[in-house]
Write a structure and sequence with these properties.
alpha+beta; 240 residues; 9 strands; 7 helices; 2 domains
């Protein structure tokens, strides 16, 4: 058999056969090295995938909103005259995209867009008894929003449902307020002309969005409810 092999193979086989303990140590060392490399590669890939899921899985990749109010440039001064101009930026106010309902089919027809969901976002307060927490209020259509962030897969208690007078809370926010599924929470948001709007909603589910700060602030309500509470009569679409 050895005669049929080349010189290099015969030398290698003789070396492996005569130094069996050394051969065993070499094989074990190589196997351990390969196992460590495979483990580290799998660990890095898992951490990378987990980081991407937590940072990008709880929010849309692209958000469309109305343009900011801009200050128009002053007309040039007439020939032979001088003008003293002072330009200051305008204060921004929440606004919606005009005809956002007609814009959604246009976005959905784009090949690079996976899903489109209208959304109203704003700040407010969540109250229950003596407990009060600042919140990020999000008004959505549940089925559309679920296609973007997979909200139903993040439910840790209850059932994801957004009917009239219902809400979904972040898990940590519910803990801070002492709220469980089925309890009612009062929500206060700033309305138009400096007024405030208050209403209550029944908690249908608690969600874990993967980021502690989001879990401590997020309150999800039906789109129509958020539109009626906020100063904006319509919602800007959010696409991903």
């Amino acid at each position: 058999m050895l005669r049929l092999l080349g010189f290099e193979w015969r030398v290698a086989l003789r070396f492996l056969r005569e130094g069996r303990m050394q051969t065993l140590l070499i094989v074990v060392g190589v196997a351990a090295g390969v196992a460590v490399v495979a483990y580290i590669s799998a660990l890095i890939s898992g951490l990378q995938r987990n980081t991407l899921d937590k940072t990008l899985g709880a929010q849309p990749h692209v958000t469309l909103s109305a343009p900011d109010d801009a200050v128009l440039a002053a007309a040039p001064a007439a020939s032979g005259t001088e003008a003293l101009l002072q330009t200051q930026p305008r204060s921004q106010r929440p606004r919606s995209i005009v005809n956002w309902q007609a814009l959604m089919p246009v976005l959905e027809a784009m090949p690079a867009v996976a899903a489109v969901s209208p959304m109203v976002a704003g700040a407010g307060l969540a109250l229950r008894g003596e407990a009060s927490r600042s919140i990020a209020l999000v008004g959505v259509e549940l089925d559309r929003y679920d296609r973007i962030v997979g909200l139903r897969s993040k439910v840790v208690e209850g059932e994801a449902r957004l009917g009239p007078g219902e809400t979904i809370l972040g898990r940590d926010l519910a803990s801070d307020l002492g709220v469980r599924v089925g309890d009612r929470v009062s929500v206060v948001v700033a309305g138009s002309a400096g007024t405030s709007v208050s209403d209550s909603a029944r908690v249908t589910a608690l969600v874990d969005l993967g980021v502690r700060e989001l879990n401590r602030r997020t309150v999800i309500v039906p789109l129509r409810a958020a539109q009626s509470w906020s100063a904006c009569p319509a919602a800007p679409p959010t696409s991903t």
